[in-house]
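Bug #77: duplicate submission created two jobs. Keeping one. Sequence:
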Amino acid sequence: MVSDTTVRPARARSPEEKGQRRDDILRAAEHLWTSTPYADLSMNQVAREAGLAKGTLYLYFDTREELFLALLTDHLQTWVGELTTRLDERRPGTPAEVADVLAASARGHEALRRLLILLGTVLARNENYDLDLRFRREVRQMLGGVVERLPFTPEVSLRVLTHTCALAVGWQHATEETLTTDYLRRQRDLAFLAPRFETEFALGLRAVIERLAGEG
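Kept job's structure:
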């Protein structure tokens, strides 16, 4: 008789194994979020997707919100690392040059933008004040190196990054592909209803940074 019992992976013991297990959980959650609305997603589903017992999942994350913020932080760290490298390579000195670097840094980070769209919903439902505050402090610390590399005052640099996030989220939402997107783009009178993310994001970013730099 063949058993249909799911074979669970052995308990992670070394720091490397625990780090890999944590990453496996994050990747499983991310895969589920591409097909399951956040409100409908449960820790049970994540555990099954990762091939773990539910109790094992709770060794790494206490709540769905904590899991979501960990995944978002993971993506943010990757983006910040790439942006820092671009800033070191390009050393932008004008608002237009900064806008070009920030626009280029958005390429390949569609998953991050989609998670940021969900962030407001997650934090609005989250009653854990400490978790919310800890996440925001981590983000501020994470951006420290970026702020140091921008040719503005720290106050203006932080506003630039805040607007960059808002524009990225807004244009990601406005440019999501639908069943009619390709058709709309072929129609001269309807093409404006199917904008492209990179073009519009870069345009808005340049205008905003020019204005913020002028105020600063």
